[in-house]
Amino acid sequence: MSYLYGSAYHDGSRYSSMKLLYVDYDQGSVGESVLTAYDSLKGPSFPKLIHQSQEQYPTRADIQQAVCIGEYWGAIYSTQNASSRLSTALFSPEVARSYDNSPALQSTWSSTRYSAYAQSVFSNLLQITEAAAAVYRNTNGTDVLPLINASDQTIAKTILSPISATSTDLHPMPQGVRFYYNTVSMVMPIIIQFFFHNGTEWNYLAKGPLRQALT
């Protein structure tokens, strides 16, 4: 129990040992925003983002395979033509009405690996998505603002929320920190109580009426 709880001490400061794969299929401003966002977030409490080329991971299936076999805890990638779709929506009210920001980024992860920390690390994926959206607003959004019809509600909504993500948990296991309670933490007190109870019983028998009768 000491090892179990001791290993969880300041565990959030060791998230950087978990690796996240990043592949930029967009090759545009959306993809660049992710890398810029990571530069502002990286540290001991944030998973390590490893940027790989699309030649190494040409398809989404290749990314999922890398996560499945444990090369990476999870992955995030920008989708092809995400920047051009966003740019078109910013300059066309008709396109902006049907623009969906969630396909811009995709994240894949597996909560079966380090299930106790899966939700915490997944929140980092959400954080980098939000940071990427902020980076885009502060850079590209500022540049195009004088050129677009910001009075149009759909365009204004698009520039305020340009990027989001769709996530896929390959192997859902919503266990969380419950493993602390339904494993050693439950078993050890029962075992200790068992031996204390038996010790008390044997002590009573050793000193009680049965011993006197035998002597």
Automatic annotation (TrEMBL):
InterPro entries for this protein: DUF3533, MNNG_permease-like
Residue runs in coiled coils: none
GO CC field: membrane
Ranges of residues in domain DUF3533: 1-197
UniProt cross-references to Pfam families, sorted A to Z: DUF3533
PANTHER family tied to this protein: DUF3533 DOMAIN-CONTAINING PROTEIN (PTHR34814:SF2), NITROSOGUANIDINE RESISTANCE PROTEIN SNG1 (PTHR34814)
Protein name in the entry: DUF3533 domain-containing protein
Organism, scientific name: Penicillium citrinum
Organism classification: Eukaryota, Fungi, Dikarya, Ascomycota, Pezizomycotina
